[in-house]
Structures are given as C-alpha cells and as structure tokens.
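To illustrate this point, what follows is a protein record of this kind.

___
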Amino acid sequence: MEIADGRGDPLAPDVVEQDVVRLANRELVERLAAATHVVANDSGPMHVAAMLRRRTVCVTNHSAMREWLAPGVVLLERNGHAGHRATEVKPSERIFSGWPSAKDVAKQVLALT
C-alpha cells in the first residue's frame, strides 16, 4: 500500500510526511497504472484510475456525485453535511470531519477483489 498526495496538499492529522509519496503528472499516471486498487477523492486521479480500469473507491462529500461517477468506481460517501460552506476557506485548505474510517475504506477495497 502506498499513500500518494499532490505536492503541497495538506495531510490528514494522523498521516506523517515520511509515509507519503508526493506525485504529479507522468509519475502519478505511471503509479496509478501499476496499482491494482485505488482509493481517491473526487479528483482527476480518481478519473484517471477509472480510465485505466483500476479497481477504484471514491471517497467524497458531494451528494450529487453519483451523477458524475466514472464507470466501475465504487462510491463511499462522507457522513454529515455535504454541499456548500458559508466560509471563504477553500476545500483544499481544510480537512473536514465525518469521513469514513480506514476500516470502512478497507472493506470497500476488499469487496472489489
């Protein structure tokens, strides 16, 4: 298992920098192509993984995500309020609570095998 994140993106509180691989562009696509399973948020890498036909779980807080979900991707939705926030903070600058646990994500991944 490998934890990959974009360069400069904030990490969850329980993730330390030395456990993360920072990827972009060709290197990211090559890693996705080599993966058997991918867990991603609603993002470009999630769509690339789906296009590469990797078994993909998308963790999201978008209630309308099902309409735009790439074919073959399993959706794991965040508990709690989803939608617009009355704040100037960009979503990428803040990590919200209520996400599925690592155990819940692992169950979804194992169900894909």
About this structure: The chain is about 30% helix and 20% strand. The chain has one domain: 3-111. Helices lie at 25-34, 44-51, 65-68, 102-111. Residues 81-86 have pLDDT under 50 and may be disordered.
